């Protein structure tokens, strides 16, 4: 993972915002001018920022004065210094709300236009790389956390709650998602690394993380988002290693992109979703492709169905970034259903976003911006907990792969496309607050993957 803020050159797509990056004087410190009256809570926030030692942030306060935080000089031996992240503060109240409600309050202030940046992901990366110093600004006070946590707990993923939570996100409209996803309409991490067929070979062929999980090999990246999404799908299909004619259950099928790739291998899919918008799109897409491809193209049946109601048995099971929406109270039910539906000797491949175990307990006790505004009822597992719950339900881990850096890249591409489609998004009826909410969501997630607090992994399980 990178340890410095991303370069903010004028060519960066996010620099389309009407702001400029002034070069601060080398003598300028983080301390405010003596004549300036700064609210008490803001002074606490500034004091926390002075403790930051990693990366570089320029804060332009409401008076126009600039303050520099983090590394004051380039690292020893560095040939060039990365551009600082620029945080444009329009109202001092941002500090009060961030200190009280953490990232939720900080995100709401962005939504309201109380702060800005040509690259909000760079600002958020600075905060994350200095999270130990900025603890309260990231997590908030216990009172603020309690209020947000209560709101989150009211969105439990019971059968009715699951459908309500999924529809709140995915039924925003197919036209909306079509504007900024790639042509395959894939809403999960792409895989940039080439040679996907080699990524699950012997462990000696791969770099190893500290927990022994294979890392996707570092090779020349492929910049086409759609190609990278297809590579992810092919990696999953290679892991399943199924013969033509085999049956596959997909739990959480999105807009049907994976099923299309699977059908090219003459696999027979049953695909579950709780989104009526996704169901309609996928059915129409596959009907057109069936006419175009003819025989030998496998089959796909799309159902508006809860995974807990599935009773049949399959040669393989796939679930791509659906587990995050299950909710911790239902993790055991999810894996129990997967074990029930797996034929003896069959394999399940689960792709899931994960959170570092060292942050899990605090994350679990509170709530974050994503849970409040984007994925109601959602909950990320740590890799260790996901594996433990699966094991307790009779599944055995046989392989795993992590590629979080590719998710940071994917999110940056989505963000670029979203900005480019601004006029079309507004034409669909979405207002400024919604657009800023969505931009913060994309930047927030990009920063998390870039700094390593979150990751994305593929887990392969068989029945124990």
Q: Got a strand count?
A: 12
With helices defined by DSSP (H or I, 4 residues minimum), what is the helix count?
17
Strand fraction: 15-25%
> CATH superfamily of the largest domain, please?
Vaccinia Virus protein VP39
How do the helices and strands line up, and which of them pair or pack?
Elements: H1 40-50, E1 56-60, E2 66-70, E3 85-89, H2 93-111, E4 115-116, H3 120-129, H4 135-139, H5 142-153, H6 159-170, H7 174-178, E5 214-215, H8 225-240, E6 247-251, H9 257-263, E7 268-273, H10 276-293, E8 299-304, E9 314-320, H11 331-341, E10 342-355, H12 357-365, H13 369-374, H14 383-392, E11 395-402, H15 404-420, H16 422-427, H17 432-451, E12 454-463
Parallel strand pairs: 1-3, 5-11, 6-7, 6-9, 7-8, 9-10
Antiparallel strand pairs: 1-2, 3-4, 10-12, 11-12
Task: Explain how this protein is built.
- This protein has 464 residues and is α/β, with parallel strands linked by helices.
- 42% of the residues lie in helices and 16% in strands.
- The protein has 2 domains: 13-140, no CATH class; 159-405 and 453-463, Rossmann fold, CATH 3.40.50.150.
- It has helices at 40-50, 93-111, 120-129, 135-139, 142-153, 159-170, 174-178, 225-240, 257-263, 276-293, 331-341, 357-365, 369-374, 383-392, 404-420, 422-427, 432-451, and strands spanning 56-60, 66-70, 85-89, 115-116, 214-215, 247-251, 268-273, 299-304, 314-320, 342-355, 395-402, 454-463.
- The strands form 2 sheets. Strands 5-11-12-10-9-6-7-8 form an 8-stranded mixed sheet, sandwiched between helices. A 4-stranded mixed sheet has the order 2-1-3-4.
- The protein is globular.
- The longest helix is centred in the last third of the chain and has 20 residues, at 432-451.
- It is built from 17 helices and 12 strands.
- Helix 2 (93-111) runs parallel beside helix 5 (142-153), helix 3 (120-129) crosses helix 17 (432-451) and helix 15 (404-420) packs antiparallel against helix 17.
- The model is unreliable at 1-34, 140-152, 195-207 and 217-222 (pLDDT under 50).
